[in-house]
Amino acid sequence: MLPGVVLTLVVTLGGCVQTAPPELMQAVEDLDRELAVARGVEFAPEEYTRFAQHWVAFKDRLNYEDDSIRWPWESNALALELEQLRQEGALAIQAAATRREAERRQAEDRVVHLERRLQSFTTTVDTVGGRMLLGQKPVKTELLVKQARSFFSQGHFSRSVVASDQATQLMLDQTAVLGKALGRYTDTGRIETWRKMVARAVDWSRLHRAVAIVVSKAERRLTVYRNGRAVKTYPVRLGYSGALEKRHQGDGATPEGQYRIIRKRDHGQTKFYRALLLDYPNEEDRRRFRKARMARTIPAGITIGGQIEIHGSDNEALSATLGCIMLDNPQMDDLFAVTEVGTPITIVGALDTANPVALALADLEWSDEETEQSAVQAQERQDTVGTPSLSETERS
Amino acid sequence: MRTWLPFLIAGVLLIGAGCAQAPTEKVAAAEKAVEEARTAGAPDYLAEDFTKLDGMLASARTEIADQGAKFALLRDYQKAEQLLTAVQADAERVKTETAKKKEEAKAAAVQAQKEAQDAVKTAQGLVAKAPVGKDRAALEAIKADVQGLEKSLGEVQTALDAGDFKAAIAKAKAIQEKSQAVSTELRTAIAKVGGAKAQAKPAPKK
């Protein structure tokens, strides 16, 4: 009986089963849920793993270990451990929130900059008539920008940045293509050649006291010279790839060179109100075409083209031709009245280094900072994640 | 009594040694279950749950190591076995839920792909109605866009095949949006320049 009394006294006066304080347990459960919402496993993987594994081990001990006795003078080890877990969880949440915000800002800056860039890029490309030269790249770029925005909106910031980088690279590629195709508009030697062509046309007009026509593609302007003096200027529309050098049929380019009117088509003789047919291709055009054919830069089966006219329009909505030079009908009436078969037509690229195409090309150029930033970030992604779109750990 | 005492001691030691066997088969089974959950895609679809599952396996291994460090007669692997049983059960749950989430993601991606395909088809139909001849100049750029959109559908399929359903959905939705914009542009252009196709006369040279 005595041992029983002693035991009862001991338990009653001192020893208690060690328990995990329920309020601390709840606090850590709440932190666990908060971490899931904050995507802790994604934004703070090390901190989250440390917390999660500690939490799991703690719960395992509670479930599978026998109760232990804690004497009044002893601290509650379970409570201490829960407190440590609470601190770990709070640190993990803070780390996740900080990194998430940093990634969000980076992705947002990138996509906003890109969207603005794309808008001005598209407008400029249309201005120089370079759209067809770029093939499917413009639509692919636009799709990537949309994906970047979509990923950003869904909180998938690293994927957004990857898409932004890919879109940026595509735009850089397109800038290079246009630079190569339209670089002659910035070439002072070429512009000088064009000026000389125009000077010869103006001299001819003065010598023969006749009308000569000059078309500047970059300015989209047709000038009528009479007796060596400019008497009229009209805005014109060109081929849908008008700024490019005409190489073959179907390229949408307006040719450059010295031509003559070989036929006048009046009302009823053309579907384009009135038209002046030029003698394209001339000898220089044929020589260039043969050279390109031999160099196989023009595919077999493609012809040099023809039927280049200066004409009016039966549809005011038409913004481009297939290569012809188009005027509004009243202006076509004026031109038709002052020209005749044999009137020389000189078509040049530009007469000034500060021409619209050259200025547009300058607008398309990326700053050294943008180019370098894009290259560095793309390389960083390649170094750290390999195939970014498949190796990121993200929740669906 | 002395004659059977050594046998008694030996017997106790043998029984003790038998009880102190680490549950190696259960460890292997638990590891296999976790690996199956990983292969099923749990780190992508149920990242938190998988991290905790890994933690449970780590706890079990720690417990086994702790018991192994004790004197043989004092070893008790009961807790470790219970942990390993829990790991296997949880791994199975994670694997099942992952498969379900993956199926949901795949279904959403396939639906987005279909919607994109329909939108591209509509745009292609409008391109076919576009006028030819000189009037087609206005539509050349749009045609190039439609060709680009059609080609981009292939990227959606590639993403689907790779199981990257998020990328598939993003690509598909972008294609659908652009296709719809192009279709609107085409309808406007066709209305402006006329929808009649060239019949008798061949297209003029340019």
Q: Give average pLDDT of chain B, whole number.
A: 86
Whole-angstrom Rg of chain A: 38 Å
Largest interface, with Cβ-Cβ < 8 Å?
A-B, 61 and 55 residues
- The gyration radius over C-alpha positions of chain B equals 34 Å
Describe the protein's architecture and organization.
- The complex is a heterodimer of chains A (396) and B (206).
- Chain A has 396 residues and is an alpha+beta fold.
- Chain A has 3 domains: 2-100; 105-184 and 360-386, no CATH class; 188-353, Beta Barrel (L,D-transpeptidase catalytic domain-like), CATH 2.40.440.
- Chain A has 13 helices and 10 strands.
- In chain A, the strands form 2 sheets. Chain A has an 8-stranded mixed beta sheet with strand order 5-4-3-10-6-7-8-9, sandwiched between helices. Chain A has a two-stranded antiparallel ribbon with strand order 1-2.
- In chain A, strand 3 (211-216) and strand 4 (221-226) form a beta hairpin.
- Mean pLDDT of chain A is 88; it is low at 385-396.
- Chain B folds into 2 domains: 18-101; 103-193, no CATH class.
- Chain B has helices at 5-19, 24-39, 42-45, 47-68, 78-129, 140-161, 165-193.
- At the A-B interface, helix 3, helix 4 and helix 6 of A face helix 3, helix 4, helix 5, helix 6 and helix 7 of B.
